[in-house]
Specification:
The chain has helices spanning about 10-25, 30-50. It is mainly α. The longest helix is centred in the C-terminal third of the chain and has 24 residues, at about 30-50.
Length: about 55
């Protein structure tokens, strides 16, 4: 591996985020809405569990 083939961590993270955004965009608006609602519900559930501890 030469020096120019090594990419900084920030670039790899950015690429991963770009892939995730592209994949979510390809799912269509209905599934994207379902995924977003599920994430919000999961965060709310975890916050509720944490407040009871």
């Amino acid at each position: 591996m030469t020096g120019h083939e090594i990419e900084p961590r920030a670039t790899r993270t950015s690429r991963a985020q770009d892939r995730i955004v592209d994949w979510l965009g390809a799912q269509g608006p209905l599934l994207l809405t379902i995924y977003m609602c599920a994430i919000v519900a999961l965060i709310a559930f975890l916050a509720d569990m944490a407040s009871k501890v």
